[in-house]
Amino acid sequence: MANALTCRTLLDEVRHEIYETYIFPRLVPSASEHKPVCKNNATIIVGAALEEATRVLCEVDAYPAPKNFQWMLNNSMGTKELDTLAYAIHRVLYQQANYTAVNGRSILSYTPTSEVDYGTLSCRATNLAGQQIDACHYTFAAGGATGPAGELQLA
User: Fold this and answer.
1) Cβ contact 140:52 at 8 Å
2) Is the pLDDT of residue 66 over 80?
3) Cβ(58)–Cβ(89) under 8 Å?
4) Whether the Cβ atoms of residue 73 and residue 113 lie closer than 8 Å to each other
5) Is residue 14's pLDDT more than 70?
6) Chain segment 117-137, per-residue pLDDT in tens
7) pLDDT (tens digit, 9 = 90+) per residue, 20-51?
8) Are 136 and 40 in contact (CB under 8 A)?
9) Is the separation of the CB atoms in 33 and 129 below 8 Å?
10) Which of the listed CATH numbers 2.30.260.10, 3.30.450.40, 3.60.150.10, 2.60.40.10 matches domain 34-142?
């Protein structure tokens, strides 16, 4: 939502008037808006073998829906932000070639290629009310199991 300001302009002495409306973005969130929070507060353990493509789902509760997500990997080598091409942001009524329309979700597609690609994954969303304070956490461990159809199993 936005705030509107209507201005009146007097054109001549005969009282010809023009009304113009300007829309300004709201700088303070309304009472119904809230920053994103994880739908699942527990740390989830995700297992994957080297060179095994894995999808990790980050779901948040937020109003309005998140505009973007940030994924980070933390391990003994330090902390790094993951490339935005590695994940999709799912939004209401928004569709693009690589993802479908779902609200408040980001799915990371991640393939570990060496031992340094394991560690703690974190996901943080941002919406118009602000950035998520406490990130969602996932322990990404080596040696994950896959089911017969290749579906990821959470340990």
Assistant:
1) no
2) yes
3) no
4) no
5) no
6) 999 999 999 999 999 999 999
7) 555 555 555 566 889 999 998 888 999 999 99
8) yes
9) yes
10) 2.60.40.10
Minimal CA–CA distance to 121: which of 68, 79, 151, 149?
79
Greatest Cα pair distance in the chain = 83
Which pair of tokens denotes residue 58?
């980050």
Q: Measured at the alpha carbon of residue 84, what is the angle toward residues 125 and 144, in degrees to the nearest 5? A: 85
Using the structure block, give the residue that is written with the tokens 């959470």. 154
Distance CA 64, CA 103 (A): 10
Amino acid at 87: Y
Please, where are the H alpha helices in 4-150? Answer: none
